[in-house]
Structure prediction request, 962 residues.
Amino acid sequence: MGEHPLKKLMFPRSVAFMGASNNIMRMGSFLLVNLIGGKFEGPIYPVHPKEETVLGLKAYKRLRDLPEVPDLLVLVIPTRLVPDILEEAGTLGIDRAIIVTAGYDEVSSEAGCELQQKIDRVAEKHGIRYVGPNCIGIYNAFIRLNTTPLPNRMAAGKIGMISQSGTYLSHMYPYLERLEFNFGEGISLGNSASIDLVDTLEYFEERPEIEVITMYIEGIRRPREFLKTARRVSKKKPIVALYVGGSEGGGRAVASHTAALAGEDAIYDAAFRQAGVIRAWSIEQLLDFSWAFATQPLPAGNRMAILTSSGGPGASMADCVTRCGLKLPSFSRETQAAVNEHLPHTGTSANPVDVTYTKDPDAFLHHIPKALLEDDEIDGLFLYGFFGADWLVKLDEAVGGGYLGGEPEEIRRMGAARTEALIEFLLGFGKPVMGSTFLDNTDSMVRDMRRGGIPMFPSPERAVKAMEALCRYRTLKDNRP
Amino acid sequence: MGEHPLKKLMFPRSVAFMGASNNIMRMGSFLLVNLIGGKFEGPIYPVHPKEETVLGLKAYKRLRDLPEVPDLLVLVIPTRLVPDILEEAGTLGIDRAIIVTAGYDEVSSEAGCELQQKIDRVAEKHGIRYVGPNCIGIYNAFIRLNTTPLPNRMAAGKIGMISQSGTYLSHMYPYLERLEFNFGEGISLGNSASIDLVDTLEYFEERPEIEVITMYIEGIRRPREFLKTARRVSKKKPIVALYVGGSEGGGRAVASHTAALAGEDAIYDAAFRQAGVIRAWSIEQLLDFSWAFATQPLPAGNRMAILTSSGGPGASMADCVTRCGLKLPSFSRETQAAVNEHLPHTGTSANPVDVTYTKDPDAFLHHIPKALLEDDEIDGLFLYGFFGADWLVKLDEAVGGGYLGGEPEEIRRMGAARTEALIEFLLGFGKPVMGSTFLDNTDSMVRDMRRGGIPMFPSPERAVKAMEALCRYRTLKDNRP
Prediction:
């Protein structure tokens, strides 16, 4: 078996780009800006009929003027020009392309469909494999390749994103950045004329750095192959999917978006189940689940413990745990005793453990989570109630300073050290741990926890639902031949 | 009918505070910091047995040393001291208090319950009405009164928050601040020993500035009075509620949190329906719904239009609209024609309208939304795809600058002016309009839209579900005597 056709497309050594100009307000320019700004290491060759340079790079009049045959060609040119340019590219030996240009099958005009057929013929003649048309391109953090309209400056993550929406690839970068996780690679499929879901699944199957496959699906073109492939791949890596085409409104929307043939929701639902695909019900949930899979081990069972310093989020999590079909067991006498040792008299050692307020940070940040994670009858842990040391520093500043009992820098340093110790300790048990917070990364502890690999979800219920996804996947794995 | 007993408590002219010290790491100190830092205009009197000053304010040794009888007394003192201090306060004529101190009914110890009975007797003897015990205090933006542990620096909003969790009052401030909306007033009820849900509902009923009532409920103590009151109040103002006590896990959690007697979920669900209360299913959703009610008019019906520049979020919204039972009608010939006039050939004028990419900002920001909102057969509008001008400026900077076709400041100014015009125009139709974005407020357009009163939800589905809540409330109102 040779190299997967997507490998060269996702890891090109050089990229030619047609359709950007020195007017930054154009779609093509958006994309080239990020290709340049993302610091892709290989050569980038803008092709432009008139300009000497485009966005600061030397430009070439025609494809045949390029100093080498590029591994990848990106096209953001007018709809009807694509077949001829592709013909020229094929003649030159270019065999991988991204066709961002839209206006084909998805507009369901005769002209659009004819142009698509022309593209098909040219691609077949020259052995060209391409992503699109009507897509937004690709993102590969491992080689800092980004042909999409938004910048992505984060480290490479373990998530492989397959999206029938360019937005759900590229518009997510700022969202992911705020939560401190990232895609490793992402492919916006567009109309999937040459490369489709199945190809991409196969590709990510073989990519060792990709440990979670995330899919936004509008419709599946090759259902039989999809089922077979997903069934195989999901045994190795979790596949999480959002499918929006199954309702009347969704079905109508996707038809004009990517020309997808959406199918009944119940059929897709059954297919996902058979194939071991974990279904999500919103884009937010798709990414929540992916985050959990990318950072946490699978729980051995579904017996959960909750540790909180706030009753409300504790009760929300407890409520959601039960509603999701997870278990919230009462603790053994030993565990209760171990917890009680560190609890103030206002606290409770039932499940949820609510410490309310304690003056001893080690109780909340070490002794009690230790007692819970050491319990063999507990498979996973939820946390709520972390604030970084700079919260105290800010409180102190609000009343003029001097009430901290120490220097602000020292308080910050101690807080950071405590967080580091907590993360190492939490990850050491091999059990999934998830937190939630209403703060953002301006809080140092929330930021450090996220960077350290503990997902801190923006709401308590979202943490619980992500845990439920891990449990669902484990059950699926356990019950398959 | 006299003034509601909560009025004096929520609008005190002076506050005495017992339980803060010059060690900022203590619970009482957290609260006093925010009372001081929030710039409450009346006098604040810390009471402390030893210190001359507390957090920079002159301190008094005992309550009887205060220069006046304060309107409100806040207690964060040891559990067993509360009855005696309250007795002293009552003797002095203090008749409103917040008892933050915990350790009473919620710990279900004999000692705790006895202390609560003592408090009851003292309160009755002196006519003291109090919030708590085991609460986090109150927040009143109208007089900048904040006795909770987190600062809140936003303008007063229209939401009255009633919470059986202190966290779901105070920890939400940074979350609300990020989304640019705020509570007007908020009350953390704790164990609800003197002031409960019903009292607070009655109070907010009379507050003209409060237009939406938001409730986090662990259990209802006076179900009959609650039903009667909620039924009456919900005719005037929407009431949105999250109830977490109805599941096995939730019921157990709330018992030890606020000593609430939770009831079966189905019973609460039916009661909410009867009382015209809009139920939410997570804390995030509770606030989403409240945000929508606080900013948008009610839709006349449930026929929705979607306008997007991105197919994925368009499809997600369309899918969610149908799943929520809202309608996504096909447009009339006139509306389609009006939309088509401004659409590029890659766009679609079906519902969702997907403009894909257009070079004409007025198409997306004026002409097309105008056509949709002018359509009598459309009751509400969803938007996706806004980016502020600084996004362009940042793109330009990423490639060294100079490709904007204008000065960055001018581009920013034009962008801000366009956003301002858009907001005014969108609000002028008297139809609900909601957007969504994956950006945060570092994007100027997202920030300005939120500040201008267009809720921009953090995900497309959340916008749709919030609209559904408005539709549900309108239907409830229409179908009531």
Q: What stands out?
A: Chain B touches chain A through 95 residues (CB under 8 Å).
